[in-house]
Amino acid sequence: MRKSNPVDIKQLVNDYLAGAQLVLLARQNRTTSKRIRHLLVEQGIIIRTSSESNLMRTRVDTNKIVADYKAGKGYVVIAKEYQISQQRVKQTLIDLGVTLRSQSEKSRRYSITEADIAQAVAEYEEGVTLTSLSKKYKVYIESLKRLLIERGVVLRTISQAQSIRTAGRPSQKRYTLDESFLDVIDTEVKAYWLGFMYADGYNGEYANKVVLSLQARDRPILERFARELDTDRPLYFRKVSRGQSQFSLSFSNKHLSKRLAELGCHQAKTFTTTFPDWMPDVLLPHFIRGYIDGDGCIQSKFGADRNSRICVIQALGSTAFITRFADVIRVNCEVGGSFVDHPKSPGIIRYDVSGRLQVCRVLAWLYKDATIYLNRKKRSAEKILVPYMLPERPLGEARKHSKLTNDQVLLIKSQIESREPYKVIAEAFGVKETAIKDIAIGATWRHITGYSQKANAARGSAKGEHAGSAKLTEADVREIKTLIEAGQLNTEIAARFGVTNANISYIRKGKGWTHVTGWNEQTNAGIGVARGSQYKRAVLTETQVADIKAMMRQGLGDTKIASQLGLKRTTLLGIRQGRNWKHIK
User: Fold this and answer.
1) Which of 3, 409, 414, 510 is most buried, most CB within 10 Å of its CB?
2) Can you give the pLDDT at residue 524?
3) What are the pLDDT digits (tens) for 431-481?
4) What is the pLDDT of residue 456?
5) Higher confidence at residue 303 or residue 368?
């Protein structure tokens, strides 16, 4: 439970009877007015009403209030001194017939005596500053200026005041700076820094102020710029909105500011920047890399199926600059791109290069032999480039798991040229048949010369019964072709030789065993094909089809014919369109 501060009851009663207010007594005893009232009532003291309290306060303080007011004090000062309201002070003065000051008199009134004013004039002429005098005499600087001017004092200029203020102090630190840094653009760093300034820098030509501000995470590149400029000026840190922070490299130098403007990086450049066509070709990738690091984007993300990556490079700027920028990229990297208008700023466009191969070409050109770059964008570029920059693999017998030597492969290739079956070659060298096939088609061991698939077309592949998976011999195929010529069905031939219908159809269509002569599909077109009622899934006979075609010629529709014969309309549609039963007239 909170303890109350002890109160001297006797002193409390005497003060109250002498006219002290409850609020003042509560403040003096560090308690509440309610407790003071309770203590007085316990002592048998009758508490004054509000009107009685006001009347007593007026009687007690009236003379002093009037004296203070006439001495120049205002309502605020008097009210605070006597712990009453300003309205009460004003009403008391009116009741006592005191003439209140007008507004103009108030504006001319200063809380400083004539003696103090004379002393202030003397001190000002001796070199004391207005700020010091204002604090000493508790007068606003503007009021103090007016008082001095009224007394014929000529106020000092800003430069004179600055000289007096800094007199006797150590001279202000002057930072070093290599102002000839941009006199000649002949190095990678100069071209890169100029590109960065084009994109994200500020050149205040009128104040000769140059500023480059970047996110706090990009501080290393600003420190690199500071070292290249040979300046010991520290970076300026500041917090911006949404919890983000920035570092800035800023300096004032007339020569550097003027030189930047001559190079095309002038003040208010957003809509008027043009591409520096004077830039040497060898420095173009460094300049463009600096521009992209300042106001561009290198992005790589997964596509919708997460099995593909979307790669893009973007740069934003004025129409004149970006158009020429795109031409340089196109000529040097042999890529295409697209332009997108800024949705809110007419005259600003974005240039996009997309597609993994195109982006890789641009990045390889930008970062070739680069020694200065923005680290986070370099990492984004590496995510795109590194997966496709595979090291050279060992070939042939130099590979760790190779089962063949170069001499063996040379011998294998000679046997392939001699039309040895793959299966026989594979067994001779202790490898799989697929390994021999890969050598034959040039999928592996291409660096071993002595055999060329193009020069030996149709010579290296095992055919017919020499193929490892062959189920028929050339004699079988000749007999099969004879049966086809005789009109025997595929199903019957397949059952006889223990193969599938597809194998027989393959031979019939001339897609396989073409080296076996004795049958020509072109001269025997249609021979041996199961047609009409001989087709195993046929639902009609030749007579029925002839009747159907006669009904169609008479003009009957498919629906009516289908209902009469109990057929499907699709069956009749195939006959009408000539896709089925073409041999029936």
Assistant:
1) 409
2) 44
3) 988 888 888 877 788 777 755 444 343 344 455 655 555 678 888 888 888
4) 41
5) 368
Whole-number Å distance between alpha carbons of 459 and 111: 118
Q: Which DSSP state fits 283?
A: G
Q: Is the pLDDT of residue 542 over 90?
A: no
- Per DSSP (E only), the strands in 132-282 are 201-204, 209-215, 236-239, 245-252
Please give the structure tokens belonging to residue 141: 């600087």
Mean pLDDT of the chain: 81
Q: Would you tell me the crossing angle of helices 141-150 and 114-126 to the nearest 10 degrees?
A: 90
Query: Distance (Å, rounded) from C-alpha 10 to C-alpha 8?
Result: 6
Q: How many CA atoms lie within 13 A of 522 on its CB side?
A: 1
Q: Regarding the domain delimited by 533-577, which CATH topology (the fold level of the hierarchy) does it fall under?
A: Arc Repressor Mutant, subunit A (1.10.10)
Q: What is the pLDDT of residue 527?
A: 45
Summarize the confidence of residues 540-550 as an average pLDDT. Answer: 84
Helix axes 501-508, 474-485, angle to 10 degrees: 80
Tokens found for residue 289: 């890399």
Q: Which tops the pLDDT comparison, 229 or 306?
A: 229
Longest dimension (CA), the chain: 147
Instruction: Give the SS3 label for residue 475.
Output: helix
Q: Where are the alpha helices (DSSP H) in 396-541?
A: 406-417, 422-429, 433-441, 474-485, 490-497, 501-508
Sign, CA torsion 541/543/549/552: negative
pLDDT (0 to 100) of residue 139 = 81
**Residues forming beta bridges with residue 310, ordered by sequence position:** 301
CB atoms within 10 A of CB 69: 21
Q: Inform me whether the pLDDT recorded for 402 exceeds 80.
A: yes
332 in Cβ contact with 365 (< 8 Å): yes
Topology of 174-390 in CATH?
Endonuclease I-creI (3.10.28)
Alpha-carbon distance 445 to 163, whole Å?
87
Residue 7 to residue 39: CA distance in whole angstroms = 9
Query: Does the pLDDT of residue 55 top 90, yes or no?
Result: no
- Dihedral, 420, 424, 429, 433 alpha carbons, nearest 10: 100
Q: How far apart are CA 29 and CA 32, in angstroms?
A: 8
**Distance (Å, rounded) from C-alpha 523 to C-alpha 363?**
61
For residues 81 and 347, the model is more confident at 347
Domain positions in the chain: 9-56, 62-108, 114-167, 174-390, 396-458, 464-529, 533-577
CA distance 122 to 102: 31
- Contact between residue 215 and residue 244 where contact means Cβ atoms under 8 Å apart: yes
Question: Quick one: which of 239, 256, 257, 237 has its CA closest to 247?
Answer: 237
In angstroms, rounded to a whole number, what is the distance separating the alpha carbons of residues 482 and 473? 14
Residue 74 has pLDDT above 80, yes or no: no
- Of 1, 4, 26, nearest in space to 15 by CA: 26
Read off the pLDDT of each residue in 89-98 and give the average, rounded to a whole number: 81
Place of tokens 């605020």: 76
Same CATH topology for 174-390 and 533-577: the answer is no
Nearest CA to 311 out of 269, 355, 349 is that of 355
Range in 252-261, 287-296, 324-333, 562-571 with the lowest mean pLDDT? 562-571
Sequence-distant (≥ 6) Cβ neighbours of residue 95 within 8 angstroms: 58
pTM above 0.85, yes or no: no
